[in-house]
Each structure stands twice: as C-alpha cells, then as structure tokens.
Amino acid sequence: MCVQDAFAKCPPLCLTLKVFLQHRELNDVYSGGIGSYALLTMIMAVLKVRLCCILGFHLDRPGNLTVGVTL
C-alpha cells in the first residue's frame, strides 16, 4: 500500500462518515458535532498512522519518532 492508495480512500470514507454523523445529528459544528475539515483531518491522521504501521515504522519507539513521522 502506498501513500496515494491510502489517501485515495479519504473521499469515500469521509462521505460515509458524514452520512453516519448526519443520521445521529452530529454533523453541525454549532450544535456540538464534527465539521468536514475536522473529520477529514482525523481520517487523514488515522490513515497516516495505519500506513506507518504497515510500512514498519513504530511510533512508540523513540528512534522512530521524528518530526517527519509526527507531521
């Protein structure tokens, strides 16, 4: 799995989660829900951590925790 493959899954996953949140009335920021930008940021962070795990980077080891991995 490469980076392009991982982030190509963002739009369908984001839309699916937006519908999920809408059914539970959690899609409006002003009423305590999650906005599109926050949702997309969280999805990208999860995919990035997952990709690091697949590629063999371990974020819990001090030697692997660099600024490039963290960002």
Protein model, in words:
The chain has 71 residues and is mainly alpha-helical. It has one domain. The protein has 4 helices and no strands. Helix 2 (10-23) crosses helix 3 (36-55). The chain starts with a helix and ends with a helix.
What's the total count of β strands?
0
Low-confidence stretches: none
The structure class reads mainly alpha
Q: Estimate the mean pLDDT confidence.
A: 76
Taken together, the total number of domains comes to: 1
Query: Based on CA inertia axes, which overall geometry fits?
Result: elongated
Strand content: under 5%
Distance between the termini: 19 Å
SSE string, helices as H and strands as E: HHHH
User: Rg from C-alpha positions?
Assistant: 15 Å
Helix share, percent: 55-70%
Number of helices: 4
The major sheet is characterized as: none
Give the secondary structure arrangement, pairings included.
Elements: H1 3-8, H2 10-23, H3 36-55, H4 67-70
Helix pairs in contact: 2-3
